[in-house]
């Protein structure tokens, strides 16, 4: 059943769409006025900052990588700087004969199309997910089987998986009849938009024009499959399939389709790995995502719409939301990821952090708080 259209929902959609459109126009103006910067340029940082950023990149495969510090050291260019470095050390630039100027232009477009005003779904989150994905791609159980194309797709999908995120969730877009909900028929609305936006920027940048047409088409389709897998409403679907593969011990990473499935799972893990980071970083991400939820709730109040689950600051505390998120989403997924990667020091480290952080949130939570609400269909809302 389609939601009833009201003047309030139309007004909310109009305000949001106006903001998105003005942001898009502003980005196009920025692109047209930009001059080419040297690839990997750290944008006029002094030598102290440059040295610290370079030192951090030498430790990019470690799990305690502080993406907030790295973003400050790179003057807000963490995504561009990180991905170019990862492409370089992974041999992708050489293997695919990429034009580094075009690569820099593409990544700059992606970084600019993230909304810096979003507390959570911004370019820093994309850089954080990409760094986590790199760590997962290095897991011994996986790394020895990966082709250069697998690594390229994994890092690219991580960098662009939330591009142009409007800072509100899919139910909000649907109930306000946003044009994106209509365009994608209320199904994986945001993820479809992230994918299509990425394809558009790939083509505009000309990054892959030197490759055969069938190769670029395959890259675009596989990027779509990876990005669409981050739809939280498909969590149980992927988790059950993953669990069945592990139970039957029938994963064959010599098969491209099985490697692609594991890349989907790895990206899903990277996307929700915040509770597996050290407490200092994990808590910052938790507060940021809840601030984004609360902003949506305030917008819903403003236009007299029903407040979405987890978006009412008066009823939904950060601690309760995080305990629910860990219990319903993160723990089940990472328990299976640990089964897949064993023996893995990284997986054990992440599970230790996860258990510690859950305990910390439990201590913060007041006794009368619930463990976090779910939507009407029982799915935990991200």
UniProtKB/TrEMBL annotation:
Zn(2+) 1 binds at residues 125, 161-162, 271. The active site is at 121 (proton donor). It catalyses: 3',5'-cyclic AMP + H2O = AMP + H(+). GO terms for molecular function: 3',5'-cyclic-AMP phosphodiesterase activity; metal ion binding. Residues 21-40 are annotated as: Disordered. It comes from the Eukaryota. Its EC number is 3.1.4.53. It holds the Pfam family PDEase_I. It is an enzyme of class 3 (hydrolase). GO terms for biological process: signal transduction. Belongs to the cyclic nucleotide phosphodiesterase family. PDE7 subfamily. This is 3',5'-cyclic-AMP phosphodiesterase. It comes from Amphiprion ocellaris.
